[in-house]
Amino acid sequence: MLMFAVYFGAGVRFFDQVEPLPFTFTSLFPEAGTFTFVMILSMAAMGMYQQDSRRDIKETLFRLMPSMALGFGLMTLAFYLLPDLYLGRGILGLVMLVALPGILLTRAGFFKWSSLGLLESQAIVLGIGGKAREFVDQAGSDPAYRRLKIIGFVPLPDEELQVPSSAVLPQMTSLMSLVNQYGAGEIVIAIQERRGGCFPIQDLLECKLNGIKVTDSAAFFERERGQIRVNSLYPSWLVFGGGFDQSPLRSAIKGVFDIAASGVLLAATLPIMLITALCILLEDGAPIFYRQERVGKGGKTFMVLKFRSMRKDAEKGGNPQWATADDPRVTRVGKIIRKLRIDELPQIFNVLNGDMSFVGPRPERPYFVDRLCTEVPFYNVRHSVKPGITGWAQVRYKYGASVQDAIEKLQYDLYYVKNHSLFLDIIILIDTIEVVVLGKGGR
Which of 24, 162, 253, 420 is the most buried (most CB within 10 A)? Predict the structure, then answer.
């Protein structure tokens, strides 16, 4: 649709011209390709490709309008930096007018088509206990959780029923019979104990050999939710599973990316940082910066650098505490810079110093780390990579201010540690733009 908008806009602009059109399909391709790339990048930055975005035209228009404005600005910058791509303001305006209704109609058609469930996968869950209950909870709490339909749950001996009895499938001679009867394409294993005679290994093997996908619940949530569920983990899965790449090549690529991204961000935000420093100084005096001990890679501590957003006596009692909603310790300037994440910008110098990475799990204070390591299984795994200014948990979950929030964010951090790559880092940076622009999760 975006490629078509460029050709259509240029055609309309020169429709009444007597002479031959000043472009051909081939000659206009670089401009069309650049416009398409810029607009997809802009829409991604506004969260239009997030799984949790509401599927309606009003929400689409709400995000599309700033995406179009951002795209127009980026295209103008591209024209300035690459004059050979210059389309002209008249053509670009026409292209935008064509692209806006085109994207809305395309999305409306997609929403309608996807709501029919023609490509919806269907799965049977093996188990009716606590791990199986998670599938019911997820489906009830997340309206975007619709890509896979759970047909029902298969009971095993000695399991306590923790799912609705109406969702339990009737007993049959074999799993394969259930699969054939309900047309399932996948079986998800959601039982705690797999040893002993009650685990139907032969039935599962029969399903596997007949082309039915057999998935562990941990792998299922990793694939569908972008997180690794803590209560589904066991040490052997971490040891023998894939991912967790800490090779020298990956570390070198990440290091180059950190320096490049930090340099660009520092140059782009230096005026904002200077204005912020002046505002803090005028409202509450010195110090402008706030240094705080945090836990980094391998459990080593370092001093993180942030703009001071709270009063000087924020922790006068001496005990660290979680930030709360409408925290009275936050200054007026602090409310603004915390909402827009400007207070995090000085951490660029932590990245350049090698203590942090640009993307990674957020570093936590030693006081909370010691507490969380005793209460949350596998919490220390997140310290196998450098902490980051932004991360997968920051763009996928709200602000964390409790042990339960720490567990939820850890599940996203574990996913990042297992699957981190340059591509995932770029996706996180794009999603971070949405978090900053829309003020999501600030406290």
Answer: 420
Q: How many CB atoms lie within 10 A of CB 54?
A: 14
Which residues are within 8 A (CB) of 96 and not within 5 positions of it... i.e. 6 or more apart? 5, 68, 71, 72
The CA-CA-CA angle for residues 106, 23, 25, to 5°, reads: 50
Task: Decide: helix, strand or coil at residue 83.
Answer: helix
Cα 325 to chain centroid distance, Å, stands at 23
Location of each CATH 3.40.50.720 domain in the chain:
121-225
Contact 9, 98 (CB under 8 A): yes
| Mean pLDDT value across the chain | 84
By C-alpha distance, which of 338, 394, 339 is closest to 361? 394
Q: Considering only CA atoms, which of 118, 122, 119 is closest in space to residue 213? A: 122
The whole-angstrom separation of Cα 153 and Cα 166 is: 10
Distances (CA, A) of 329 to 180, 311, 314, 442: 61, 6, 6, 15
pTM comes to 0.76
Quick check: helix, strand or coil at residue 334?
helix
DSSP 190-209: --S---STTS-HHHHHHHHH
Please state which of the four CATH numbers 3.90.180.10, 3.40.50.720, 3.30.930.10, 3.20.20.70 is assigned to the domain occupying 121-225: 3.40.50.720
pLDDT at 44 over 70: yes
Nearest 10 degrees: CA dihedral of 203, 233, 415, 43? 60
Query: In 10 A of CB 211, how many CB atoms?
Result: 8
Q: pLDDT (tens digit, 9 = 90+) per residue, 332-375?
A: 898 888 888 899 999 999 999 999 999 999 999 998 898 888 88
